[in-house]
Design a protein that fits this description.
Shape: globular
CATH class: Alpha Beta
Number of domains: 1
Order of helices and strands: EEEHEHEE
CATH topology: 60s Ribosomal Protein L30, Chain: A
Strand content: 25-35%
Helix content: 10-25%
Length: 126
């Protein structure tokens, strides 16, 4: 199967040696997204604002890949503080509808650039 790199200006540019997403067949692997505003490349202030921005970034990449947030089948979430888990759930509910995708969430010691939440995604497009 051919491998296609996905890139959009509506999500933050990669800040390292990775692509925003890679599509292989009907599956799209979206790199971990932090709460960067794609226009300013500045992190949003606070956990909820960063989590909301992460979803906007993921949505933009899903659309650039020919899908939508509703096509996500798995989220992997990294938080710097698990006490933000309830707010994380609120953001997920505000952006998704049932049946919800699979998800993992773990606390990590630190994230790049001082972020407090990073979410990577896998979507399947029919």
């Amino acid at each position: 199967m051919a491998r296609q790199t996905i890139q959009t200006d509506k999500a933050p540019a990669a800040v390292g040696t990775y692509s925003q997403a890679v599509k292989v067949g009907n599956t799209v692997y979206i790199s971990g997204q932090l709460g960067f505003d794609p226009e300013t490349m500045e992190l949003r202030e606070g956990f909820k604002a960063q989590a909301e921005q992460v979803f906007e970034n993921i949505k933009a990449i899903c659309e650039a890949a020919g899908g939508s947030i509703n096509d996500v089948v798995k989220f992997n979430v990294s938080l710097t503080d698990l006490s933000d888990f309830a707010v994380l759930n609120e953001v997920f509910v505000a952006n998704l509808s049932e049946p919800y995708p699979a998800r993992a969430a773990v606390q990590v010691a630190a994230l790049p650039k001082g972020g407090v939440v990073e979410i990577e995604s896998i979507l399947y497009i029919d």
